[in-house]
Design goal:
The chain is of the alpha+beta class. It is built from 2 helices and 10 strands. It has helices spanning 15-23, 117-129; strands at residues 2-11, 33-42, 46-52, 57-62, 67-70, 82-86, 89-92, 96-99, 104-107, 112-114. Strands 5-4-3-7-6 form a 5-stranded antiparallel beta sheet. The chain has a 3-stranded antiparallel beta sheet with strand order 8-9-10, with no helix packed on it. The chain has a two-stranded antiparallel ribbon with strand order 1-2. Strand 9 and strand 10 form a beta hairpin.
Length: 130
């Protein structure tokens, strides 16, 4: 299954756009722009979704080590086979290698994701039935 995600990125504006705005003699700020870029990703490519409190957004980490940022996970989680392992962290169990001794999930790319004590038994049960 594939899902389309609109990722938020903040980047420097296009130099052509700056020139046009200068010609128009506008006071519009052009230091940074927030862009919504569409991405089509496969469910199997998703490693985890994590809430980033500092920027009030969620991040999808993919198998390609790409990080896509978006404002809400509410519409994503029901469409993907993810489990909540901690507050604001959802993991794709298909990409989990093991649960280590530190109560962290080791993913196929080597990343580790913490599992809360409250969710630990549920995660163990899901891993044994996987």
């Amino acid at each position: 299954m594939q899902i389309q995600v609109f990722s938020m990125t903040t980047q420097a504006p296009d130099p052509k756009r700056i020139e046009i705005l200068k010609e128009l003699d506008t006071d519009q700020a052009v230091e940074n722009e927030t862009l919504y870029t569409p991405h089509l990703i496969s469910q199997d490519d998703v490693l985890y979704i994590k809430r980033e409190r500092k920027h009030h957004q969620y991040e999808i980490k993919t198998m390609d080590n790409e990080i896509l940022a978006f404002p809400s996970a509410a519409y994503m989680v029901p469409h993907l086979s993810l489990i909540q392992v901690d507050r604001g962290i959802y993991v794709n169990l298909n990409n989990v290698k093991q649960l280590n001794d530190n109560s962290e999930l080791v993913l196929v790319n080597g990343d580790t994701v913490p599992v809360s004590l409250r969710k630990l038994d549920d995660v163990k049960n899901l891993l044994t039935t996987k």
